[in-house]
Every structure is written in C-alpha cells, then in structure tokens.
Design brief:
By secondary structure, the chain is α+β, with helices and mostly antiparallel strands. It folds into two domains: 127 residues, no CATH class; 133 residues. It contains eight helices and seven strands, in the order βαβαββαβββααααα. Helix 4 runs parallel beside helix 8 and helix 5 runs antiparallel to helix 8. The chain is elongated and about 105 Å long. The relative contact order is 0.11.
Length: 274
C-alpha cells in the first residue's frame, strides 16, 4: 500500500460548488456540507493532462481545497481554473494557509498520529475522506484566526482612543465593525461546521473513532471554542462602545435642548425690555 500525500489550502471564504459542477458537466446538486470531488476525466480536463496515481482534489464550500497526490503544476492549474469562477482567490498567495499531511499504511501496525502523518494498519475508503475533511477545516480555521486577529487589532485602537478620552465612533463605523464580527462568526459556525460530523461516522464505528482522534489531534474543537470565546468578548466590547456612543449623543442632545431653552429665555427677556 502506497502513501497518500495531502495538501490543503484555505484560499477564500466561500466557493460555489454547484457553479463548478455546472462548468465541469457534473450532474449533481451539492449541498453546503458535501465537498466536490474532482478526479479522472473531469480532473484531466481541468489540468490539461493525465492525473497522477490516486490523484484526487476535494473542493469545500467554506473555501478550502485538498489535493491528494497532486503535483505542483496541477495545484496551480486548478487554482487558475477556479480564479475564473471565484475572482477573489489570490493565486500568488494561496500558500498562506496550508496544511501538509500523509496517510501512511503499514500492515500489522497500530494507528499512530504524528505532526506529519497518520499511520494505519489497513486502508479503508473513509480514511482519505476524513483526513481531507479534518485538514480542510484546520486551514479554514487558520484563515479565520487571522481575520479575527485583524478585528482585534482594530478594536484595540478604539480602546486606546477611549483611554485617551477620545471616542468618536459613528453609527456607520459601529455597524461596519459589528458586521465584520457577525460575518466572522457565521463563517466559523455555519460554514466550517466544526461541530458537525461527516455522515459516514454515523454508520461506521471505525470511521467515527478515526474522525474523533483526528479532530482531537488537530484540536479542532479547542480552537473553535477559543474563537467562539473571543467572538463573544468582541461582541460585548462593541456593545460597550455602542452604549457609550449613544450616551454621548444623548448628552449632546440634552445640552442642545438646554441651549435652545436659554436662547428662548434670552429672547423673551429682550422682548420684555423693548
């Protein structure tokens, strides 16, 4: 049994699998939890040459792509193809969020997870599928973690201004920051589906056990909980900013009302004097 080499990249936030399926003449309607599998004739058409041994490519709706036994030129060929469908894919920077892994079958040995490979005694059909799903989620989380870092940096600058007594945040800016947080939360929970298990794990106990161990090794749940916790903190900070901003506006309106009353009184006094 030969090794299978996996390369996963997170290249965007979302990919329309059904649009790719139509382009490739694949007569199937894809749901958001099912990856698009490219192999054999379909893959040959995209990369322009014969695929390698056991070569497959899985495209996930949450923006990750997993290459199995793919040569570098095949990776770049597929990305150029997807660029025509999804324009925000940065071909020159596609390796920013990357995960390499190897499925290493060794007959008679126990299952063993390492940073570079997983060793299994016998190859089953679910092994490549589940490894692809886990590392696809892992690189997608890595992308989300960077986006969260940028939001935190932006919030930190606003906190610095607040410490200096300068808080001038308009409703438009608050709405924009809130939308970034909500979008980040949606991409994490709804699209990457960290808490969801593949269908095969519900009917195959060996697959379920392998997926649990693989997910635990890549710390998917722990990373998700950290992101969720930071997101809740961000939302509470934004609520605090909104409360302070509304209080300042309310105080300003009150002072304007007082000023108008004073002006009216002055005008009345002037009329009496005349």
């Amino acid at each position: 049994m030969n090794d299978l080499k996996f390369k996963a990249f997170a290249v965007t936030n979302e990919i329309d699998l059904n649009k790719i399926a139509v382009e490739c003449n694949i007569r199937k309607k894809y749901t958001w939890e099912e990856p698009l599998l490219l192999q054999e004739q379909v893959l040959r058409t995209i990369i322009g040459e014969e695929p390698g041994d056991d070569e497959k490519i899985l495209v996930f709706s949450f923006g990750s792509i997993v290459f199995i036994n793919s040569a570098q030129q095949h990776i770049e060929a597929l990305l150029r193809y997807l660029k025509n469908i999804k324009s925000d894919i940065e071909i020159g920077r596609y390796e920013r969020f990357q995960e390499d892994y190897v499925l290493h079958p060794v007959e008679g040995e126990d299952v063993e997870f390492t940073d570079r490979y997983v060793q299994i005694p016998n190859m089953a059909l679910f092994h490549p599928q589940l490894i692809s799903i886990v590392i696809a989620k892992s690189v997608a989380l890595e992308r989300i973690e960077e986006q969260l870092g940028k939001i935190l940096d932006d919030i930190e600058s606003k906190i610095d201004n607040l410490e200096k007594g300068k808080l001038n945040i308009g409703n438009k800016e608050l709405a924009k920051t809130t939308s970034r947080i909500v979008r980040h939360e949606y991409n994490t929970i709804a699209y990457i589906m960290i808490l969801d298990k593949p269908d095969i794990t519900w009917i195959n106990s060996d697959a379920a056990e392998f997926y649990e161990k693989m997910s635990e090794f890549f710390e998917l749940n722990d990373r998700y909980e950290v992101i969720k916790s930071k997101t809740e903190i961000l939302k509470s900070i934004i609520d605090g900013f909104a409360s302070i901003s509304h209080s300042i506006r309310g105080l300003f309106v009150e002072w304007v009302i007082v000023l108008l009353i004073v002006i009216e009184l002055v005008l009345m006094v002037l009329d009496l004097i005349k």
